[in-house]
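Form 12-C: Joint structure prediction
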Amino acid sequence: MIKDWKHLLIPYEQAVEELKVKFKSIRNEYRRLDEYSPIEFVTGRTKKMSSILNKARKRGVSLEEIEEKIEDIAGIRIMCQFVGDIDRVVELIRERSGRDLTIVEERNYLESIKESGYRSYHIIIKYPVHTALGEKEILAEIQIRTLAMNFWATIEHSLNYKFRHNIPADIKIRLKNAAEAAFMLDKEMSEIRYEVMDAQEKFQAKSTLIEEILIKLQDLYFLRRTEEVEEIRERFFIIQEKGDIKELKSLRNQIDEMMARYEMERML
Ligand code: 0O2
Ligand code: 0O2
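Section 2 - Result
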């Protein structure tokens, strides 16, 4: 019997290793492209045999039904920096459904927060593994959460272990408050994220404009209109110092008009 238990876990262990590699390589691809990765880090585990048997007993699941009814024997956890990244990761997994994995069920504990205060997005998948014993399709659970949600869940999980799932009422209340605090932290961070992205976009737009103006100024020099160019150049330095995008755009348009005028004069 014990020998059979050992065999039972083999495909699950393989699935965890494969899925970890797959999600870690998505993260690495983003990084190689100098793009922001919605995946911060990935962990995974196979459930211990004793935990599987406990869960089965509590749920009235017979030994024959374990593989069909215990969905998290293989578990993958994907951690994200921001709440918005969770949707992107969910989308990435949905796009793969029907290819190397198949989504069986999605559980949105970000919207339907658990009584304990637990938040995460769970996806149950079917995943084919090719082992030395042949091909087998197993169930696996992917949990997607932010770093703050993970921090909370890790602490709550260890307290559950310490109190054998009977956390005292006062600690339960404090844990719920802590879950709200973690949620607020995520909210604050998301707001900063948009500020940062907004600032980066504006900075990018400004540098592109400045580069454009510098090239146009060089073209003007070639047209040998030194006096006018000097005047524009002086204004450009003042505007650049102020960093006002509207003024920079207006200066660029003025240079464009000037160049069009010079071209006309040359043709006459
Ligand atoms: P990298 O590129 O260093 O992040 P393994 O079998 O060793 O690949 P395993 O057994 O799941 O993975 O290890 P573990 O300890 O659960 O951690 C898995 C990955 O998560 C490791 O990255 C850890 O560095 C990373 N990790 C764990 N906690 C944190 C954390 O709080 N922040 C960050 N950013 N990463 C964390 P790798 O696989 O070594 O890759
Ligand atoms: P492990 O390996 O200790 O993490 P149930 O188990 O009854 O809550 P179900 O239907 O099995 O429900 O699946 P569910 O709730 O979608 O996902 C179960 C897993 O989600 C748990 O696995 C935890 O990892 C995580 N989880 C769910 N609720 C909580 C919670 O209140 N606190 C924390 N810390 N984690 C939670 P297991 O079975 O506990 O296994």
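Section 3 - Comments
Residues 20, 40-41, 43-44 surround 0O2 (ligand 1) (CB under 6 Å). Helices lie at 2-32, 49-59, 66-69, 83-96, 147-162, 169-222, 226-242, 245-267.
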